Predict the 3D structure of the following.
Amino acid sequence: MKLEAVELIRLNVPLKSAFRTSFSSVNVHQVVWAHVITDVGEGWAECGANERPDYSSEYHSAAMDVLREFFIPDLMALGNDLQAEKVAPTLFWAKGHRMAKAVIETALLDAQLRHANTSFATYLGATKTKVPAGVSVGIMDSLEELHSYVTNYLADGYLRIKLKIEPGWDYEPVKMVRKEFGDDLLLQVDANTAYTRDDFDVLRRLDEFNLLLIEQPMFEEDILGHAKLADYIETPVCLDESIVSAEIARDAIELGAAEIINIKPSRVGGYIESKKIHDVSVSQKIPVWCGGMLETGIGRAANLALAALPGFTLPGDTSASARYFEVDTTEPFVLQDGHLTVPTGPGIGIDPIMEIVDRFAVSREWITRS
Ligand code: OSB
Ligand code: MG
């Protein structure tokens, strides 16, 4: 395969309601896409980076810059020798920038698999045709508001509820949801690094609610702190932000810091690395599940293929299009009996709807061979 050109597109996709975490509140899913043109066809991918470096150090302008200045020229320089599997080794010299690496690798993998008439699910080794869906519920202004959102998501059929927490919005909302919706509800929490080693007793109070897991309570670099916390509390500790590679996953597991892992392909540099993290976790009997970055259909399609691998034994944040958007960028993903169907078409198995891309695009830039 030969990379002829890349279109970088920034889109502003309105959310149905604000999504608040311990690090931001967003009304619009601002996102960057890569659209690759190769000699064997086109491919599409959505970048996980946010507009601001708030979830991780990556952000839109930086991702676009590193792609334009370094990654795309390096991949173009491979000439006819390019394959999606060569993206990570070719860009290995560049430190970090995993979300930028992931978006170009994924778009090229889409082009390559469309040409080979193979789906992401088949390529990655998926064993399921549909995957159970959870939903991530943002921080609210009141317990009443939270009650009404959870009621509606459960009526939609979501099989697991994840509550975003932060200091001051933790014990009471979890207590309310457990009491109101019952002991059988699959319930977990996500702190997005909002706590410190001084908060162990606050976090231990959550043990009474029999949570599936607590996700990323502390700073992403504090692997040892998470191991200490995992010893201190009953609730299993799950890492998100900390796990940026299969090597870190291996080490965090060995240290006892990751009893469960949230795999987000964008955070770890793509689907090939995600599969490695899956394999390491399975070999160590660590459950994994597929996280999300509020992806539109282009990103969601590939995530569903990953979530269909056998080690993904917990429901993911792979919710239906209607949980996020009035209008998605693809045909909407629909919840059926609490599950989403894994796409089976070639590549990611779905196409962007170009009129909608035109409507939501705020900038488009072509990078061509020089
Ligand atoms: O930490 O999992 C997270 C959204 C944006 C950034 C970080 C996270 C999230 C979510 C929502 O929790 C996941 C989703 O529904 O896509
Ligand atoms: Mg998270």
User: Anything to note?
Assistant: The longest strand covers residues 3-20.
